[in-house]
Design goal:
single chain, 281 residues, eight-stranded antiparallel beta sheet, 46% strand
């Protein structure tokens, strides 16, 4: 069922994702709109919502652990020389309006609020497209504009002193199964070989499904991938990998990630072929 607050994405008439615009969540989880469940065309779920290992992982969306010291990721905040710390610094992404809404996608405006003030205005564009009878593509673009009169910067636990933890930006919490998923790019295989590295595309392969991620702009492709398979299955594009990312007053940061959602276990050739098709659409 489609409601005002939870539109359903459809591909060839089949529901493939529900978008929750106004979730009722505690402040500690940094409330924000998200896609869940996202499914393959055959109906296999490939996202998780608030799993026990990380309650603040919310399907597919945009989450940033440090916007000028405010936590839009959820959970604890990594503090230099102190470690993960419970702080009362959580922000929220608030749905403002849909500029466009169709069965296969939408354009949305959001406000990023912390401490009673709006820091960022986001325009989010999401589109679902059929690729084959067993695969479709999710095209996800977000544009963050600094609406304050002062410069802002985006950071990550990595830029705050925790090596290897440059998460923040587009993030997909995948389905957890008994066996950890396989992960590979055109150049490497396994979490250690692909995490924190740049790659034109990256595939996460579960028991009966495959996700293939690709940055669809030159700037997005410069961001290394954040990858977890052993602890939990998740893939993101790292906005702040080695240093903080500044956004001056009135300026806009844009990223676009295209994800192939396929039934079955794709190999390198299959993953590469589908993501090429998806990005070229």
């Amino acid at each position: 069922m489609t409601t005002t607050d939870s539109p359903v994405l459809r591909v060839a008439g089949r529901p493939v994702g529900r978008y929750v615009t106004r979730p009722e969540l505690p402040a500690r989880l940094s409330p924000r709109p998200y896609l869940h469940p996202v499914t393959t065309l055959a109906g296999t779920a490939v996202t998780e919502l608030s799993p026990a290992d990380h309650l603040h992982h919310l399907g597919v969306g945009v989450a940033v652990p440090d916007v000028e010291g405010f936590n839009f990721w959820g959970g604890r905040t990594y503090v230099r020389d102190q470690g993960p710390t419970e702080l009362d610094n959580h922000g929220a992404q608030r749905h403002s309006s849909f500029q466009l809404r169709d069965p296969d996608g939408f354009v949305e405006e959001l406000r990023w609020i912390a401490a009673g003030a709006e820091l960022l205005r986001e325009r989010r564009t999401v589109a679902a497209t059929e690729l084959t009878d067993s695969a479709w593509a999710l095209d996800f673009t977000f544009s963050l504009t600094n609406v304050t009169s002062d410069p802002l910067s985006i950071g990550s636990p990595a830029t705050n002193g925790r090596p290897g933890a440059a998460y923040g930006g587009f993030f997909w919490r995948a389905r957890k199964e008994d066996r950890a998923p396989d992960v590979f790019t055109s150049a490497g295989e396994g979490e250690e070989a692909v995490h924190a590295r740049r790659a034109d595309w990256l595939a996460l392969v579960g028991s009966t499904w495959t996700l293939v991620f690709a940055g669809a702009t030159e700037q997005t492709r410069r961001d290394p991938w954040f990858v977890r398979t052993g602890e939990y299955p998740g893939v993101g594009s790292s906005l702040a990998h080695a240093e903080r990312v500044p956004i001056t007053s009135g300026d806009t940061l844009v990223r676009r990630v295209v994800t192939v959602v396929a039934d079955g276990r794709l190999d390198r050739d299959g993953a590469a072929a589908l993501i090429r098709k998806a990005v070229s659409l």
